[in-house]
Amino acid sequence: MTKISLGKGINLGLRRAMENDPKVLVMGEDIGKLGGVFRVTDGLQKDFGEDRVIDTPLAESGIVGTAVGLALRGYRPVCEIQFDGFVFPAYDQIINQVAKMHFRSMGKLRMPIVIRIPFGGGIGAVEHHSESPEALFAHVAGLKVVSCGDPVDAYWMIQQAIASDDPVIFFEPKRRYHEKAELDETAETAPAPLHQAAVRREGTDATLFCYGPMVKTCLQAAEAALEDGHSLEVVDLRTISPLDLPTIFASVKKTRRAVVVHEAPLSLGPAAELAARVTEECFYHLEAPVLRVAGFDTPYPPSRVEEEYLPDLDRVLDGVDKVMGY
Amino acid sequence: MTETVTSGGPPDQNPAESTTPGLAPETFAPAQAPSPEQPSEEVEFVQLLTPEGERVEHPDYSFDLDDDAIKGFYRDMVMVRRIDTEATALQRQGELGIWASLLGQEAAQIGSGRALNERDMVFPTYREHGVAWCQGVDPLNLLGLFRGVDQGAWDPRDNNFHLYTIVIGAQTLHATGYAMGQQRDGVIGDPENGEATIAYFGDGASSQGDVNEAFIYASVFNAPVVFFCQNNQWAISEPIDRQTRIPLYQRAAGFGFPGVRVDGNDVLATYAVTQAALRRAREGSGPTLVEAYTYRMGAHTTSDDPTKYRLTEELEHWKLKDPIERVKAYLIRTGASDNDFFDSVEQEADGIAANLRQGCLSMPDPELTEMFDRVYVEQTPQLVQQKQEFAAYAASFSVGAEGSH
User: Fold this and answer.
1) pTM value > 0.95
2) Domain A198-324, what fold?
3) What integer best gives the mean pLDDT of chain B?
4) Distances (CA, A) of B397 to B336, B384, B400, B401
5) Exposed/middle/buried for residue B383 (C-beta within 10 Å: 0-12, 13-18, 19+)
6) What is the pLDDT of residue B400?
7) A242: closest CA of chain B, how far (Å)
8) What pLDDT does residue B399 have?
9) Which CATH number, 3.40.50.300, 3.40.50.970, 3.30.2290.10, 2.60.40.1890, labels domain A2-183?
10) Cβ–Cβ below 8 Å for A69 and B163
């Protein structure tokens, strides 16, 4: 076992994927010599060369657009978008080209592309560096959207995303890059499929659904809720599109109450889809409506007030109090 | 290949910009760009066959094939014009939702398409019916998109001809990435047997960010890609002077690779210039921008009405430069072809058009239930459920269905 950070987990996962498949390429801004602004690709160019770890011009549509061509040529590009707010110049390529290619080619063409996006707030950054745009991708047919919440998942999920023949938007919780955990690097297989949620903590009174940076927050909230006498289950969704509905339904049918937590703005966010699905499938099991604890429907605020904007332990517990009050 | 830059110098300064600082100009009228009607007087281009059908020489480019090849080009151009005419008629009769005509651009497409080797890869817009013909794509397959039965029915890997791309300019980045893949596959280095990629786009697309990013990526990575711009003077209703103040091919210099303007209505010159650019790419010398100077003789699409924004006399001017007529004049002038040849080509074209019509009318509508399976390689449970629910819903309408609507 080795103690690694979440960022190191992605780094090791990328390295292993590149060792196993010579068609895997990594491309993005500053990812070569520098190793990325978060050092996630540290050392890869030194070991795999400039043809496989490509420092691109500073143009995001170009990164994704050329990745489409490389994928058509048989490569498996892993694109790094430097920050969440910088992905939008590539939005046309992602939405109109990457997502639809398999469909419009009547299944003949595949787009095995991973687009890595460090996302979310809490690092005191300037604007456009703290956003949570996952709903904007999860709404698009043809894309799959996942987020890792801990270092072990980071290591395995990036490899699974690269192995996927469908395009995957891979959201990395940037404020958790330095969280640490033990990784068994000798393991041969991933602990779970890519599109499967994980019950991180068993509980009986209500379920907290979360992903990415909110997994740690929800685990802390569940611990604190014990003082109030509440036993909370925590489900790390891991996959936002498609949602792992069987795991979600099983947990709700057990606890009969659900709170969905994400940093992304409240309205029309991933929590809304989850709430609708739970209502359709678990209506007679519910003791309370599905509640949401989320970012507000404002642009991401200046960082001096971001701690109030972001769901934290207290706001999650406030949501729990409400759902227990029915 | 020699870089061909034969511009007449920088454009006149915009009078609005020379206004005394602090005094607002009265209008922001665009600069007076060179008139599209008189290109050859403004900027020279590579021409090997005049509109009158006379062979001329160019210091940097020569056409090295025989008259049989020219007859082949003639046949190609007549076929694709006939296919285009038939498709337009099918649209007018309600059999296609829309059609994007290539009328007037036959030489640009056949000349460049015939310069490709069997390993070169093509990334088209939605108007490259002539290049599709050169790559062996069944013309009937082109109609599916416009009839609304599919979004591209050919396999791009069989014909080295990618699917049509509607969003303007997006395919130039795909071409550049594909060419970067060719580099990594080690198939570059031989001007004849190596591989290159060609990206088609138009004068309107030259304003797109993606096209400019493609130029930058191709340049800094020295990718084996030819950027083939058909400047047909019009982006729907917007004339070329709304896209650029300098001849488009001159932009290449700013990106660090050669640009050349060719008479896009001259199939011989287009062939020679494209072949030189492809050889340059295949040998590893990097990208080239080819600006094929041509004219969209029809509407943008069948939904467009060009009488609202351009003069008939402009069209009449360009009719004198027709890409097919000049080859016919050459073949007659030199005695390379007789009437039997021209008659047989017409007959063949009519046969292809009849088959195309027949095939179009018998194209089956797609099944919506098939669509659910093509979204992902690995189907999601959500889509499986939606497909089942839709199938059950649809079946409830069938005669004899229990509890039918």
Assistant:
1) no
2) Rossmann fold (3.40.50)
3) 91
4) 64, 21, 8, 7
5) middle
6) 67
7) 7
8) 74
9) 3.40.50.970
10) no
